[in-house]
Amino acid sequence: MSMVPDVMRAAVLGEPGQVRIRQLPVPEPGPEDVLVRVRRASLCGTDLKIRNRAFFKDGGPQADTFVPGHEYAGVVVAAGSAVDEFRIGDRVVAEAHRGCMRCANCLRGAYTDCLNYGVRARGHRTQGMTVNGGFADYALNHVATLHHLPAGLSFDAGVVLTTAGTVMHAFDVLADLLAGARVAVLGPGPIGLLAVQVAKQLGAELVALAGTRESRLKLGKAYGADLVLNVHQCDAVSSVRAASAGHGVDIVLECSGAGSAVDDALRMVRRGGRVVLVGFFDQPVTSDLNHAVMNGITIHTVRGEGAGSVARALSLAGQGRIDTDSLVTHHFSLDAVSEAFDTYAERRGDALKVMLDISDR
């Protein structure tokens, strides 16, 4: 690993609610690994749960050694002996999940549902969740979790497109073409706003976006939403049903993570329609599942990206069909990671995607 130092800066977990910068050894690639010089990384809601240790069932990894960060992009600086897919200097985007590739789920392509989740000895890794992630100068990835960043796309765009991968995966589970479908998206955060764009690009006939923040709803309108609804100012369920011949839409993507939105989703979708739960909920949710049963509504769930979805999101963006620039609202240095977390958690300046500028080299 010529030109790569022995130590690096890394943001590590401290006590619950704390993260700090310390020096850690630069990881060395195994035969199938790639060492990435991280250029950009961004925060998402899962990172807040990781910082607060609410994400971990057992309290989480040891403080001062665990590096969060699962949305990042950078440059290849070293690779293992079995890697020929990438060369030094390649610009790459990382996806978080690497399944064990030996369990029944992984063998059918559902590696985000790996039956050996968290068992490193069996090959499973999730960057920034079960193994160290990208809030550091360098990150170690299995070769299968990296994608070439298309020419013309910035590192900022590449990072945002890992989130777009989640959206692509949410549509994947429907196992159907989106062309001609009527779609409602609940929650105009980064996932929801990307869902509006992807739905339109895949041919949805109607896309409705519901939320509470006018600035985000306005952005959704600019992204192509046919109907934007402030749930504080109208009955979103009635409005969506009225816009879809009174029957309800074919598909609802619940991206807000708000418990009350589940019932809204069930009442917006038509009989025999489908709801995809994309957002993570802070607490257990009580919902009228009898309504789903009586109306033949199918409920799907997805966890992050999967099934090659990041690569397809990169392809769409490389064709100029996804706008990511307006989603990036804040930039911080790695040394200011605590301020970045607080900005995101408190939505200062209507924060959407908060980016860590880790390196310009």
From TrEMBL:
InterPro entries listed in its UniProt record: ADH-like_C, ADH-like_N, ADH_Zn_CS, ER, GroES-like_sf, NAD(P)-bd_dom_sf, Zn_alcohol_dh
One Pfam match: ADH_zinc_N
Keywords: Metal-binding, Oxidoreductase, Zinc
Metal-binding recorded as keyword: yes
UniProt-recorded Gene Ontology molecular function terms: oxidoreductase activity; zinc ion binding
Cofactor: Zn(2+)
Domain Enoyl reductase (ER) as annotated: residue spans: 14-356
Recorded family membership: Belongs to the zinc-containing alcohol dehydrogenase family.
Designated name of the protein: Enoyl reductase (ER) domain-containing protein
Upper taxonomic lineage: Bacteria, Bacillati, Actinomycetota, Actinomycetes, Streptosporangiales
